[in-house]
Design a protein that fits this description.
Helix content is 42%, strand content 11%. It has helices spanning 30-43, 54-60, 95-107, 119-142, 147-150, 178-199, 214-223, 239-248; strands at 17-22, 47-51, 65-68, 112-117, 157-162. It is found in: Cytoplasm. It is an enzyme of class 2 (transferase).
């Protein structure tokens, strides 16, 4: 992309540099998210970076923050897991770790960050955003950055994408990975049903979701389950007798 100039003093336009990372448990579709961020960034004239191993890659820097090009993400859509890795970062939970992460972004000229992860990952992103100005000020006072280095990066733009099979984010139709997880649950229940029918036995199937019952509800509807437990609607008193009646029918 050609650099632009203005009349009068020479001014160089700065390409925006956008980094993407995946954090927390992997969810189907994360590679599609990374691919989309990288290719759309390049399409819009920005430089794209991938942060490997989640927040730990931000803290460690070095080769874990890698410049990405269009062809680097070819074939990623159909791949499972997350090809740029995800790791639990104890160091990012500390202020010292976040200071190092901020420095690594500034020295690479990255001023925008896309985080794909669950509740903990996006909470960490919000904390990082809230502390950003104070982190830069502290880095300058420590001598880790000069005032000139820090000045262009007074604001860090962060986008959070919910990568969660639980579909536990309100005001959105679906979180990344929830439909793939539902599909797998239905496949597993269909296979278990054959054994249950063969032996005239009842089976209890527990699915993921934590405090959100979407996976359990949708899989129960899809597979024709006889009973459903979800945290949003705890069973009423006497449910044990009702369940026994249904099972014996």
């Amino acid at each position: 992309m050609a650099e632009l100039t203005t009349t009068g003093p020479l001014m160089l336009s700065k390409r925006r540099r956008i980094a993407v990372l995946t954090s927390g448990g992997d969810a189907p579709g994360m590679n599609g998210v990374v691919r989309a961020v990288i290719r759309m960034s390049i399409h819009c004239g920005c430089e794209a970076y991938a942060v490997h191993e989640g927040y730990e890659g931000l803290v460690q820097g070095g080769d874990l923050i890698k410049r990405m090009h269009w062809e680097d993400v070819r074939g990623w859509l159909s791949r499972g897991g997350t090809l740029i890795g995800s790791a639990r970062s104890m160091s990012f939970l500390t202020r010292e770790g976040r200071l190092q992460a901020a420095r690594n972004l500034v020295i690479r000229g990255i001023d925008a960050l896309v985080v794909c992860g669950g509740d903990g990952s996006l909470t960490g992103a919000d904390i990082f955003r809230g502390e950003w100005a104070a982190l830069l000020k502290e880095l300058v006072l420590m001598g880790a950055l000069t005032a000139e280095q820090a000045k262009p990066y007074g604001c860090l733009n962060i986008v959070g994408i919910v990568g969660s099979i639980d579909n536990d984010m309100s005001t959105t139709d679906a979180t990344v990975g929830c439909y793939s997880s539902l599909h797998r649950i239905c496949e597993a229940v269909d296979e278990v049903f054959d054994t249950a029918a063969s032996h005239q036995r009842g089976f209890v199937i527990e699915v993921m979701g934590r405090h959100c019952g979407w996976l359990a509800l949708m899989s129960a509807i899809s597979t024709g389950a006889d009973w459903l437990f979800i945290p949003e609607r705890p069973p009423r008193d006497g449910w044990e007798d009702d369940m026994c009646d249904i099972i014996t029918q």
